[in-house]
Amino acid sequence: FDSKKNEKPDIGVVTGLAWTAYGGVILDVEVATITGKGRLITTGQLGDVMKESAKIALSLSRKIVEKMDKKYCEEFDKNDFHIHLPEGAVPKDGPSAGVTLTTAIISSILKKKVRNDIAMTGEITLRGKVLPVGGIKEKVLSAYRSGIYEVIIPQSNEKDVEKIPEEIRRKIKFNFAKEILEVLEIALIGGVENENK
Amino acid sequence: FDSKKNEKPDIGVVTGLAWTAYGGVILDVEVATITGKGRLITTGQLGDVMKESAKIALSLSRKIVEKMDKKYCEEFDKNDFHIHLPEGAVPKDGPSAGVTLTTAIISSILKKKVRNDIAMTGEITLRGKVLPVGGIKEKVLSAYRSGIYEVIIPQSNEKDVEKIPEEIRRKIKFNFAKEILEVLEIALIGGVENENK
Amino acid sequence: FDSKKNEKPDIGVVTGLAWTAYGGVILDVEVATITGKGRLITTGQLGDVMKESAKIALSLSRKIVEKMDKKYCEEFDKNDFHIHLPEGAVPKDGPSAGVTLTTAIISSILKKKVRNDIAMTGEITLRGKVLPVGGIKEKVLSAYRSGIYEVIIPQSNEKDVEKIPEEIRRKIKFNFAKEILEVLEIALIGGVENENK
Amino acid sequence: FDSKKNEKPDIGVVTGLAWTAYGGVILDVEVATITGKGRLITTGQLGDVMKESAKIALSLSRKIVEKMDKKYCEEFDKNDFHIHLPEGAVPKDGPSAGVTLTTAIISSILKKKVRNDIAMTGEITLRGKVLPVGGIKEKVLSAYRSGIYEVIIPQSNEKDVEKIPEEIRRKIKFNFAKEILEVLEIALIGGVENENK
Amino acid sequence: FDSKKNEKPDIGVVTGLAWTAYGGVILDVEVATITGKGRLITTGQLGDVMKESAKIALSLSRKIVEKMDKKYCEEFDKNDFHIHLPEGAVPKDGPSAGVTLTTAIISSILKKKVRNDIAMTGEITLRGKVLPVGGIKEKVLSAYRSGIYEVIIPQSNEKDVEKIPEEIRRKIKFNFAKEILEVLEIALIGGVENENK
Amino acid sequence: FDSKKNEKPDIGVVTGLAWTAYGGVILDVEVATITGKGRLITTGQLGDVMKESAKIALSLSRKIVEKMDKKYCEEFDKNDFHIHLPEGAVPKDGPSAGVTLTTAIISSILKKKVRNDIAMTGEITLRGKVLPVGGIKEKVLSAYRSGIYEVIIPQSNEKDVEKIPEEIRRKIKFNFAKEILEVLEIALIGGVENENK
Ligand SMILES: [Ca+2]
Ligand SMILES: [Ca+2]
Ligand SMILES: [Ca+2]
Ligand SMILES: [Ca+2]
Ligand SMILES: [Ca+2]
Ligand SMILES: [Ca+2]
Ligand SMILES: [Ca+2]
Ligand SMILES: [Ca+2]
Ligand SMILES: [Ca+2]
Ligand SMILES: [Ca+2]
Ligand SMILES: [Ca+2]
Ligand SMILES: [Ca+2]
């Protein structure tokens, strides 16, 4: 995997944190909205658990933005959502990209850029709760190695932060999230608070 | 699995009771209705028996609410029903979430909150009969451990309650159900009796 | 399997007779018609032969009721037919539920109740012929044990009745059918003769 | 398999000849046209070669009747074609039911009855050529045992007739066909010649 | 396989040359256009490579005839294309029927007969290039045995012709093709040159 | 595989570079746009990773050309995109045809020819980044052997160029790309700069 931080903030591109047998890695999620009819297209050799995460992320994103403004309803009717996780040949699976996928989709609908100096991990549920995931230590170390010094991790993983060597830990800004709205407020440039009318 | 009781009553969220090789667990069912065309989307690594339970729950819910008021007919034409069972990576199967799934769907259509201080288990049939299930003792103990002191179980499982240690049994309120309408009357805040016109 | 006779006659619910390695059992077929577009939904872990029986039952039912009255044509265009065989986790297969499935579908379209004091078995063909099936002795004994004293079986199985112990046999009323219309005339309350115009 | 000749001529029902490890059998093909949109439904545990035969039979039937009269074009647009081969649980495969399937479909469209005192076998091609098949001797013997004394077999199988014992052979009327139109002229009551305008 | 040359030229029927473990064979391709909506139906137990060849042949045919005359565009919208390769039970695979499939489809659209005294083989690409194939010697010998004395083979296979025994080779007329248009000009009665406006 | 350079520049045809166990090969990508409804058809025995590359290429191409001119939006609604990789029977897989596929699709939409004297390789992401691939040395040698003296490879593969023997390396013109737009500017005759309005 490419271990370089993205050069600049972009719409529909979010830096996730993944965990492999060889340690943590940063992993981009890319979302493209293309004219269509509400379908979900996934590429990047996603396993069945991750494909289900993408479905959850799409339904949840829909709930969230439609609550912000009714005008977004039709975005879902007239677009397809293509989610790609480079590198395309490496199989990827597990539920921990849930918050990353949701953030990428919402960024692409609201047309708000995502900070490229932050990385995130966390399982998501259909009503937006952020569930704990494994490999927090390895994931944070990989962010650090890639030059990313701020992360968003699940509230329930707070205890895992202590396992990170102190000299690195104190250079990282940790955000603990219980709900997806907290994630969006931090990661999207401009936040989402003004969107709630 | 997360063994904490939900913090507050919510629409489309029901606490189920499941049974694993390691004992009973509480298991949330989440339902989101999203603009669509009557499709059923299931996530959470459901096995084929549980996927069929979700289909039965959807058809049964449709029958029930359309009998309450014709206005609900169109709800099914213009919405998709997304059912998710966290945690997303843990495989789940069996018929015993039938009443839980049905209650969650009906809550989301009627926009009535479900009590968060009650848990339930039971197979459902297409005409709303509640059939007996296994693991009653283990399931009730898991509710107790999670701080939930009221349960709904199938009438035909009444005999299984005696296997629960008396000091716990007397702290639990047991509701025995033969029909899904009895379940809804207890679990939905405000009940469903007024809905029948 | 639940071995109790249904409490009262109902629309879309028919008592079938099945045959397992452990002997005969009674087995309900439930049909729900829900607003849709003529699709067939089957649940209850049906094997591929039984799923095909359901397809045959649907096509045959269509032919029969459309011959009774042209008004039924549109019923098939605007409804889906959901067939469920409790208990949902027990795999079921074979062709011998053909007459039961057909009777349940036709009951649900004509809105005529099915007698709950009668049980039936028989393969069906697309033009309504009733073909012989196995396990007649075991099936009839299971009806008797469940308190059901009248059965419908294929004409070609008449010879198998002699294998049933005489003290039980003389307490049972046997109906032998060659065609599905004979089955409907007996099982549907009010019969179907008046329907033929 | 049921080895009895059908009681009377019917629309959409044709007696085929099949060949199993236990010898020849007669095998009904049933076709029901139901309101729909040109789809093909097959039941009776057909293998993939026989399912393809049914597709060929449907396309060929379409070509033939549309050539007879343009009015038949819309029959294919507004109907589904359900083909069933009793007995429903016995797997069936191979290409030799091609002529039988085609004859049954065309009977059901033209609403012409098929002779019940004749049986047939033969592979069909998309342009209506009748190709040779195996087991002619066993098939003809099974027709004879079932009380059917006239058969249609492929022209290229003429040589196989000599293997049939003479005392039976001379009681059977053999029709040898090279093209499906020859089969239809013999098997459909009233023939098809007048249909060609 | 039937090794006889077709009796007369026909629309949508082309003689191909195939190669098996037992030597070369001639193999008919049959195409029927039936009222529909642009779908491709294949029968004759085609393997996945040959099914892809049929898809390529359909797209290529479309490009070719639409270039000839815009009026053909709607042919593809209102017809299905059924391709069958008798004998229906024999599995067939490989890319070498590409030119044969394309020729059969174009014949059926232009309603031009195909010469029955010529046989062909060759892989096709999406832009109409003819690629070399194996088994040229065996294929040509099978054409000869079937009474066919003219063949079309890929230009790149010209060198393989020398392997054919001279006494047979000099009785055969060889056409070498680099592009599908050269094949069509030779095989379709009347050619296609006048079609290009 | 055919190792000859294409004779002339063409629309929708791009020379890719692939890597097999036997060394590098040049590999054409052919794209045909046919009247349809935005579907993607792939042939040539593509593996699942390469099929995903084709999906990414289609979504990305859509984004790119719609940004150039809104008029291209409808091209995607009224056309199907058929992508073929000859030779049809050889399985192909991997992500490294991403830039080749995207270039071929965009060529076919813009109706701009692709240079036949250039070959390319590189994984593509959904937002158009060009990712590194393996086998650069073998791929460049195969281009050289086929008479192609200019290549486009990913920027991140620049270091691999040193492994190519110097006498060949100095005869090749190398273009290093980070983004797909750089690839298009070089490979499409006339470039794409004027397209950006
Ligand atoms: Ca899995
Ligand atoms: Ca967990
Ligand atoms: Ca299962
Ligand atoms: Ca049970
Ligand atoms: Ca039971
Ligand atoms: Ca089976
Ligand atoms: Ca039988
Ligand atoms: Ca097979
Ligand atoms: Ca043969
Ligand atoms: Ca294959
Ligand atoms: Ca080759
Ligand atoms: Ca794979």
Average pLDDT of chain A, rounded to a whole number, is 93
Count of spatially separate domains of chain A = 1
Q: Could you please say which CATH topology of chain A applies here?
A: Ribosomal Protein S5, domain 2
Taking strands numbered 1, 2, ... along the chain, how are they ordered across the largest sheet of chain A? 2-3-5-4
Choose one word for the global shape of chain A.
globular
Oligomer kind: homohexamer
Order of helices and strands of chain A: EEEEHHEHEEEEHEHEH
Radius of gyration of chain A, in angstroms, nearest whole number: 16 Å
Could you name the ranges of chain A where pLDDT drops below 50 across 5 or more consecutive residues? Answer: none
* Extended strand count of chain A: 11
CATH architecture title of chain A: 2-Layer Sandwich
Question: Biggest sheet of chain A, in brief?
Answer: 4 strands, mixed
CATH class of chain A: Alpha Beta
Q: Strand pairing plus helix content of chain A: what structural class?
A: alpha/beta
Biggest interface, CB < 8 A:
A-F, 21 and 25 residues
Number of helices of chain A: 6
Q: Could you tell me how far the N terminus lies from the C terminus of chain A, measured between alpha carbons in angstroms?
A: 41 Å
Strand content of chain A: 25-35%
Instruction: List cofactors, ions and other ligands.
Output: calcium ion
Helix content of chain A: 25-40%
Write up this protein.
Six copies of one chain form a homohexamer. Chain A is an alpha/beta fold. Chain A has one domain (10-195): Ribosomal Protein S5, domain 2. In chain A, 31% of the residues lie in helices and 26% in strands. Chain A has helices at residues 48-68, 73-78, 98-110, 136-145, 166-169, 180-187, and strands at 10-11, 13-20, 23-35, 40-43, 79-84, 113-114, 119-120, 123-124, 130-131, 150-154, 173-177. In chain A, strands 2-3-5-4 form a four-stranded mixed sheet. In chain A, strands 7-10-11 form a three-stranded parallel sheet, with helices on both faces. The first copy, chain A, has a two-stranded antiparallel ribbon with strand order 1-6. In chain A, helix 1 crosses helix 3 (98-110) and helix 3 packs across helix 6 (180-187). Chain A is globular and about 50 Å long. Chains in contact: A-B, A-F, B-C, C-D, D-E, E-F. The interface between A and F is medium-sized, with 21 and 25 residues. The complex binds calcium ion (12 copies). One calcium ion binds at residues 47-48 of chain D.
